[in-house]
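Notebook, bench 3.
Goal today: get a predicted structure for Alpha-ketoacid dehydrogenase subunit beta from Streptomyces cyaneofuscatus so we can plan the truncation constructs. The sequence was checked against the plasmid map this morning, with no discrepancies at the termini. Length recorded as 326 residues. Pasting the sequence as submitted so the record is complete.
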Amino acid sequence: MAVEKMSIAKALNESLRLALDTDPKVLIMGEDVGKLGGVFRITDGLQKDFGEDRVIDTPLAESGIVGTAIGLALRGYRPVVEIQFDGFVFPAYDQIVTQLAKMHARALGKIKLPVVVRIPYGGGIGAVEHHSESPEALFAHVAGLKVVSPSNASDAYWMMQQAVQSDDPIIFFEPKRRYWDKGEVDTESIPGPLHKAVTVREGSDLTLVAYGPMVKVCLEAAAAAQEEGKSVEVLDLRSMSPIDFDAIQRSVEKTGRLVVVHEAPVFYGSGAEIAARITERSFYHLEAPVLRVGGYHVPYPPARLEDEYLPGLDRVLDAVDRSLAY
């Protein structure tokens, strides 16, 4: 067993390094990913070690980056493209949803597009406009795309490996405010399938479901609730498309209550689909309505107000209390 303690950023870097080293068809493309090593240094040192033909600094043209990746994938490559910030993905949205997501079905299964689109997402870093978005539901709604987000270093390392090896296009959301959170990574033991949810804390009174940056908040909420005698289970969803509804259902039918937490706005967010599906599946097991905690239905605010916008410990605990009060 080779266990190392590393940050999420370091885990992603090591995972991409392994992917480049293992498969000569893997390429990394994006703005400033080469010489600079990326804004968050996720690709630091990779161009130096693998060359400019494998780690490619592109023009500032997201549509062109993804369009080029599609062409390369058609020729047998496995491109990993970086969108520098979440809000910059929209110039490439057309390429992603009308080409990348559709090509496999359009070709009746004869063509595969193994492209990974990396997107640092979410707030909490005091950034300016267009740098703190959570657009995961927009991509999860599109058939043909798989959408994932790690919450810890181990998942960051292994989920990136699994994403690069997948023959399906994957939108890989990286929680940027968690980049420097550290954890243990076993680099020799795959933790599980890419799209399976994981119970990260056992409980019996209520289930909290989250993914990406909100998993840490939910764990803190569960610990705080425990001090008041409440037993809260925390499920790390890991994948927003497909969603592991079976895992959520098993947990809810044990606890009888569900609160879904995500940083994106509650309105039309991933929590809405989860709430509807679990209500259909587990209606007679629910002791309370499924509640949702998330961002407000407003443009992401200036940095000085983001602490008011982002779901924090108090808002999660309020939802836990409201659910348990039924």
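The CA atoms of residues 125 and 177 lie 6 Å apart. The mean pLDDT is 97.
Flagging this for group meeting.
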